[in-house]
Specification:
Elements lengths: L2 E6 L7 H16 L3 E6 L5 H12 L6 H28 L4 E4 L6 E3 L8 E4 L2 H8 L3 E4 L3 E3 L5 E3 L5 H11 L4 E6 L20 E3 H9 L7 H10 L3 E5 L8 H5 L3 E4 L2 H5 L6 E5 L2 E10 L4 H11 L4 E6 L6 E9 L3 H16 L3 E5 L2 E7 L9 H11 L6 E5 L2 E7 L3 H11 L8
Helix pairs in contact: 1-3, 2-3, 5-7, 6-7, 10-11, 12-13
The structure holds aspartic acid and magnesium ion.
């Protein structure tokens, strides 16, 4: 008998018919003798609908008092899901009970709309499991120390599920979703993309942060920190497939690096179009300049990603960095208002039409020439690289947005990701 956490995404919970299927699948696992905790998302589209209602009344909700209400509203989506799933399970003849985050409780800080989980009390859940019940816990939500309902940020049910699995030391956390695993890249762009049987936790972390949207990045961080055995798999297989077959489908997030070393050097290609590039031209090249430019940006709570500073000519240099596209105009305004006058920079120019393409693989640690192979591949396609950044296990380039698909396809092929691994 194992303690298993299942997480079902919005699509899997999208209709009463689908919820019935989820219930049958969970019932199959429970009848096989496992203790089951289930964490569902809101029915698909529901969170958007709820937040849309709020937006009609107040287009820009940014004050804490408004953000608090957004969480009050958005959290109801999951509350409906858990109740429906519990009813469906009881209709299957199982004992089941649903809980809102505050009832468990799942304790978080008070950062409304992006709260972080601090602790989960598992006593109540354990008692139910011991009494033979399936326990269903609302994803995405928690409660702060004032008793306010909080939510964890969009896609946060993944993090709820992994956090519950970590707190309960579950044997495995299975994330059921509308794709059947983690792919070498997005199959909508590269039809030859392959599902990875395993991916290391570090690669997954990079891929999630670089734009592959299979898992919320915080859930991956959580899984890494607490070493939660995590698997991503499809909820669209027939509910009654053999449990052993189901339990080995999808993609397993692993912690063993050695095993992986034997495999492909590059595990996948990630990309995103969420960033914009900003260059401060002709700033005096002297100590403190990076701080003078980026300090005000950081103070305005704007995240900076890639940064480059050029060689100086006649004591002047150009300084470029990327920010999220949502922060693009705000950053330009801020630089023009504060930084240009203070640094005597010549001008600030921006380009929102960029994308970032990355190769990711823990094998890059032990292989040389991987980045240069990437650069050669892009050169052969005539794609100009505007910026480069690397970590131990990834190399990212910033290129013109219009070459994104070409770059991803070419790199996928160059690194043999379309070939079945040995
Ligand atoms: N329902 C929430 C959202 O749409 C949380 C989740 O689905 O993970 O973002
Ligand atoms: Mg999701």
């Amino acid at each position: 008998m194992a303690l298993i956490v299942h997480k079902y995404g919005g699509t899997s919970m999208g209709s009463t018919e689908r919820i019935r299927n989820v219930a049958k699948r969970v019932a199959k696992w429970a009848r096989a003798g496992h203790q089951m905790v289930v964490v569902p998302s809101a029915m698909s589209g529901e969170t958007n609908r709820l937040l849309g209602l709020a937006k009609e009344l107040s287009p820009a909700s940014t004050t804490t008092s408004l953000l608090r209400e957004l969480d009050m509203i958005a959290s109801t989506g999951e509350q409906v899901s858990v109740g429906l799933l519990s009813i469906a399970l009881q209709a299957e003849g199982l004992e089941a009970v649903s809980y809102a985050g505050w009832q468990v409780p799942v304790r978080t800080d008070s950062s409304f709309t992006k709260a972080r989980i601090q602790s989960i009390d598992d006593a109540r859940v354990r008692a139910d499991l011991a009494a033979g019940r399936v326990v269903i816990i609302c994803g995405f939500q928690g409660v702060d120390d004032q008793g306010n309902i909080t939510t964890l940020g969009r896609g946060g049910s993944d993090t709820s599920a992994v956090a519950v699995a970590a707190a309960m030391k579950a044997d495995e956390c299975l994330i059921y979703t509308d794709v059947d695993g983690v792919y070498t890249t997005d199959p909508r762009i590269v039809p030859e993309a392959r599902r990875l049987m395993t991916v290391s936790f570090e690669e997954m972390l990079e891929m999630a942060s670089l734009g592959s949207k299979v898992l919320q990045i915080r859930s991956v961080e959580f899984a890494g920190k607490y070493r939660v055995p995590l698997r991503v798999l499809s909820s669209f297989t027939p509910w009654d497939i053999d449990i052993a077959e189901e339990a080995s489908s999808g993609t397993l997030i692993t912690f063993e690096e050695d095993e992986k070393m034997e495999q492909a050097v590059v595990a996948g290609i990630a990309f995103n179009r969420d960033e914009a590039k900003i260059s401060v031209m002709g700033v005096p090249d002297k100590p403190g300049i990076a701080f003078q430019i980026l300090g005000p940006v950081a103070e305005a709570n704007i995240d900076i990603d890639v940064i480059i500073q050029n060689v100086s000519h006649d004591g002047k240099t150009d300084f470029s960095f990327t920010v999220h596209r949502n922060d693009y105009q705000r950053t330009l305004d801020l630089l023009n208002a504060k930084v240009v006058p203070q640094t005597a920079a010549a001008q600030v120019v921006g380009d929102p039409k960029i994308c970032k393409v990355s190769i990711v693989g823990i094998g890059m640690r032990s292989h040389v020439g991987v980045a240069s192979k990437m650069f050669r591949c892009l050169a052969e396609e005539g794609i100009n690289i505007q910026m480069i950044t690397t970590s131990e296990i990834k190399t990212s380039v910033v290129i013109d947005e219009k070459y994104m698909e070409l770059a991803v396809r070419a790199l996928h092929k160059a690194f043999d990701l379309d070939q079945p691994s040995a």
